[in-house]
Design goal:
Elements (H helix, E strand, L loop, with lengths): L33 E4 L1 H4 L5 H13 L9 E3 L25 H10 L3 E7 L16 H10 L4 E5 L23 E7 L2 E4 L4 E3 L5 E3 L3 E3 L21 E7 L3 E10 L9 E6 L2 E7 L10 E2 L3 E5 L2 E8 L2 H20 L6 E4 L7 H4 L6 E3 L27 H8 L12 E3 L12 H13 L4 E3 L11 H6 L2 H7 L8 E5 L17 E7 L5 E7 L5 E8 H7 L9 E6 L5 E4 L3 E7 L4 E9 L1
Parallel strand pairs: 1-2, 1-20, 2-3, 3-4, 4-17, 17-18, 18-19
Antiparallel strand pairs: 5-6, 5-11, 7-10, 8-9, 10-16, 11-14, 11-15, 12-13, 12-16, 21-22, 22-23, 23-28, 24-27, 25-26, 25-28
Helix pairs in contact: 4-5, 8-10
Length: 581
């Protein structure tokens, strides 16, 4: 007997995320956020008193006047469990409550930000994640007059996210597929189908594995290209007809092999559910019959699993939906902290204003007077260069109409980075239109000192906040001369040159020595090349006024070629160029 397909889940499904549409009134045309976040400075040890002190520092230092407006509480601010189903303040650390703190910050001319998680728990363990509580949590955030929400991705029950059950990968990968049977005819997954993307592969035992979306949490793979894989059959039919399809499959519960199958015939998704578990990943069985409709001529049958992206998008969208329902006019900036796991550059712009591209930039955060530690380079994500290497080729995913790639908080002022590295860290983030969220204890900063002169560099901030909202593009890379804007280069022994159009036909150039050694050479970029890459946005000139953002010296350039002959270890030279008639 033919079995009708299982009821499709009510969550939104997407064959593409590139239609430019946003969900639930997500606001466009925001520039990258600027502010201070508690995590790098204090970890879970932040308090109401410390938060007020940081707000006072922002204003006393004049950083608020430069655009640093959000004061964001990270993990550690709630009670460890819900009270009557609701979030509540940890009473020792935040005795006055969150609304009182919001009122205090608003009175100081600043904005109030908070933190949560799409999972069941926060990353530090408190059992107060938004999963299943989106409506009441949205109401709480509106009642507390929150202006910014950072939402993490730990303990997520629909994927093997951090601290989640690894077997949750069964939701986000299809089973191993050996064949499909349509009517009385068999089609081999290895011989008769095409594998799309870069995740799935055919095995010599005659099956295809890895049908799903690649985990982007770590820095190993490029963010560019098709990061999901499907198994696609092309079937010719003599006439329009209804028939049956069976799948020969074997399930697993780990990254790469799951239980969830999505099946689409032409433009119709006809199956989207868990298949019954098999005895092992090599114990292939036939599914029950699924009714499908074939048209006369060529038909495309896709076996896939996009739930890694769809589940996460739906979870972030659900909270936004209830925020908009609770207060349609309330302006809340929404920051997704899911560490690049689900390739958020593809989907997050539909609901979020920024999205993290990798796991944390540091795991050694401050506590009890310790300033925390940052690194210039690491094998994993915990360094300036790990984050930069990936973010620098992601400019195509960002913009005023989308949102912003987020390579995590600034580590300026933490131990481990020297003055030159801090300067270049700031220049990188400003050129790439990354959010500028300070992560240091601001009591360490004095007006006019080295730290202040970096985070308060007006010219750099103006590059980041330029109203055009166009991220820099890498137009030169000494280790990728042919495709500098798209080659993913993790070797730091190189020099990059970034260019960024600015309002008024101006542009910025940053010469960046990514390496920890002196680099000598003729590192140059012409105005003609910049105009070629940013057509209609950069003016020509008979001469060019060139402002060095660090020395604040202005020089005149007449040949339209901008060059640097030598860069110290980790040094940058960043210029704002104004064409003149």
């Amino acid at each position: 007997m033919t079995r009708k397909p299982d009821k499709i889940r009510r969550e939104m499904t997407f064959d593409t995320f590139t239609d430019g549409k946003v969900l639930y009134g997500k606001k466009k045309d925001r520039l990258p956020a600027m502010g201070w976040n508690s995590w790098n400075a204090f970890g879970s040890g932040n308090t109401e008193d410390l938060t007020k002190q940081m707000a006072e520092c922002l204003n006393k230092l004049g950083l608020n006047e430069l655009g640093y407006e959000y004061v964001v509480l990270d993990d550690g601010c709630y009670k460890p469990e819900r009270v009557d189903g609701k979030l509540s303040n940890e009473e020792i650390k935040f005795p006055s409550g969150f609304r009182a703190l919001a009122d205090h910050l608003h009175k100081a001319g600043l904005k109030f930000g908070m933190y949560n998680d799409v999972g069941t728990n926060l990353c530090a363990g408190a059992a107060v994640g938004t999963c299943g509580h989106e409506k009441e949590d949205a109401r709480s955030y509106i009642d507390w007059d929150v202006d910014f929400l950072k939402v993490d991705n730990c303990y997520y029950p629909y994927d093997n996210a951090t601290f989640s059950d690894p077997e949750n990968a069964r939701f986000v990968f299809a089973p191993n597929i050996r064949s499909i049977r349509i009517g009385s005819k068999n089609y081999s997954a290895v011989k008769d189908a095409k594998i799309t993307g870069s995740v799935a592969s055919a095995k010599k035992d005659g099956y295809v594995t890895g049908i799903g979306t690649f985990d982007g949490t770590g820095p190993r793979y490029s963010p560019l290209g098709l990061r999901s894989s499907e198994l696609v059959f092309t079937v010719t039919n003599k006439q329009d007809s209804e028939t049956t399809l069976l799948v020969e499959y074997a399930t697993g519960k780990r990254e790469g092999v799951g239980e969830w199958l999505q099946l689409a015939v032409n433009d119709e998704r006809v199956y989207d559910a868990l298949l019954p578990a098999t005895d092992s990943e090599s114990a292939f069985v036939l599914s029950k019959e699924i009714t499908i409709r074939l048209k006369k001529g060529s038909n495309t049958i896709r076996l896939m699993n996009h739930r890694r992206q769809e589940n996460t998008l739906n979870s972030y969208a659900k909270l936004l939906k209830y925020l908009k329902e609770a207060a349609p006019e309330k302006d809340i900036l929404y920051s997704a902290c899911e560490w690049g796991k689900t390739q958020p550059q593809n989907w997050a712009g539909k609901v979020c204003d920024s999205w993290r591209i990798l796991n944390d930039i540091t795991f050694r955060v401050g506590c009890n007077g310790d300033s925390g530690h940052g690194d210039w380079v690491s094998d994993y994500t915990c360094s300036v260069t790990s984050q930069y290497n990936k973010a620098v080729i992601m400019d195509r995913f960002a913009g005023l109409d989308k949102g912003w790639n987020d390579p995590d908080m600034l580590m300026i002022g933490m131990d481990g980075l020297n003055l030159t590295q801090n300067q270049t860290h700031m220049a990188m983030w400003c050129m790439m239109n990354s959010p500028l969220m300070l992560g240091l204890d601001l009591r360490r900063v004095k007006k006019g000192d080295e730290l202040y002169n970096i985070i308060a560099n007006r010219e750099l901030i103006s590059i980041n906040q330029d109203p055009l909202g166009i991220p820099a593009r890498r137009l030169y890379c000494s280790l990728a001369p042919k495709r500098p804007d798209s080659n993913y280069v993790r070797d730091i022994r190189r020099v990059d040159i970034l260019a960024k159009p600015l309002t008024g036909g101006r542009f910025a150039i940053s010469f960046i020595n990514v390496s920890e050694e002196v680099q000598k050479g003729d590192f140059a970029l012409s105005a003609d090349m910049i105009r070629k890459h940013f057509k209609g946005l950069v003016d020509s000139g008979k001469r060019y006024e060139v402002l060095d953002v660090w020395t604040r010296e202005t020089k005149s350039n007449r040949d339209g070629i901008f060059r640097v002959k030598k860069l110290k270890a980790c040094e940058n030279v960043t210029l704002i160029v104004t064409p003149k008639p």
